[in-house]
# Entry
Amino acid sequence: MRRVLSWTAIPLILVALISLGFWQLERAKEKQALLDEFAARVGQPPIAVSGERLGAGQSGAAATIRGRFDGQGQFLWDNRTYEGQPGFHVLTPFVILGSDTRILVDRGWIALEGGREDLPRPSVPSGEREVAGRLYEPLMGFTLEAQAPEFAAPLRQNLDLAAYAKDAPFSIQPYVLRLAADAPDGFVRAWPEPRETSVQRHRAYALQWFAMAGVFIIVVVAVVRRQRREHQSKALS
# Structure
């Protein structure tokens, strides 16, 4: 029975190792597509965002928006670090001029100072202005929250834009604007950019999984040969 189980497990293990390798190659392909998309948009003029809902495929595009900041719905995005220091990102709604539509503006990172029971309260800039940055489509991340917090919650573990928009008393664009590093009204901004190293990392991981599959095959073949020799030796004795 044990031998039957072991022979059944061999192809399953091999398939798992090879599948992980191809999964890493697929991740490398996705990262390469993002890198190519980002590179193609670097030299493009910024989009002038209006109250009209933005379509798909705009993530990474440079954008400018005219309007004003609105403190209603501002929150801190928890568990953000900068140079190893814990803190938050400040997300503030921005009312787009000529409409009641908002777009969330990520104004950057602020440090956690003191205890978590006394959260920082960043001020909200007043007056009409133009903000600039790059559009970002946040992805759902890991969270321990059983459900998304209420709209007015000052702290959120996850940047779940769909849940935020569902509870908001106004319409909101399906992107976040990461405020440009040289723009006023922000905090520490060190935005991640797609890099060739991330693509190479996934390819290296794929190579490791394929190598493990190759080593596994060699070990299985060696074990089979040894068992055959032992069986033949017993048969002759």
